[in-house]
Model the fold of this input.
Amino acid sequence: MTTAALLDLRDVSVSFDGFRAINGLSLTLAPGEMRAIVGPNGAGKTTMMDIITGKTRPDTGSVTFRGHDLTRLDEPAIAELGIGRKFQKPTVFEALSVWDNLLLALKGLRRPHRLLFARLTPDEIRRIEGLLATIRLGAESTRAAGGLSHGQKQWLEIGMLLAQEPDLLLVDEPVAGMTDAETAETAGLLREINRTRSVVVVEHDMDFVRALDVTVTVLHEGAVLAEGPLDTVSNDPRVIEVYLGR
Ligand code: ADP
Done:
């Protein structure tokens, strides 16, 4: 017997003005899995994430998460089901401290002035401290988020998503613009998160994908071209042709 998939995209297609951005895409994520998605520009990676989060509705095919049909739900309902998405550009409250950014996320508050009325329980304090440790910002908790490095802002935003306790975290190009040290640290950070949550990471940086050490799905022209360990897919002649044009 096979374990039920956490996330299952089956034969999904979507067109924009007659152009098939996603063309018969099928992808299955097991509970607890972390998956890396790679592929050249225009392969459909962003559109796939948009479909999972309800931003874009597929024309055909099915998308299920823990058995729920996501194609019938809007973005807030999908987030409520336990899917969190980290976009490429970090959107933290720059004037607020790292701690207050996490507190806002934990309380589900959208407006900083609401913090004035927020009371913290001991459990919430423990959770924020746990998040700070996970995102490597324990020593920066009182610092304004605007003063963090680009990489630290990315980690803070990941922490803000984790505060909402998603079962599945979608991360879009997390290491773009990071230093080598931050990139290496981010691989460890995501592996740590993956101990308790499922993760889908879209990323171009192959050293980073190697460090994740997970199954890689190569997208091309809106469908899966190859899937497997990085060493296997990177030696696949079809993948080499797509990347190198030979
Ligand atoms: P990737 O993230 O892999 O670079 P995208 O999912 O952004 O690829 O895009 C896949 C294809 O769909 C591209 O050719 C892109 O130009 C096209 N596309 C994506 N979104 C739209 C849209 N809203 N309208 C028209 N074309 C789009």
